[in-house]
Amino acid sequence: MIKLRDLLEGYDPAEAFHKKVSRMTDQNDHSAAAVELAIYMDDRDAVRKLQQIKKDHDKNGSITPADQKERDGLVDKLLKKAKKELSDKDYKLINSSF
Question: What is the pTM of this model?
Answer without folding.
Answer: 0.85
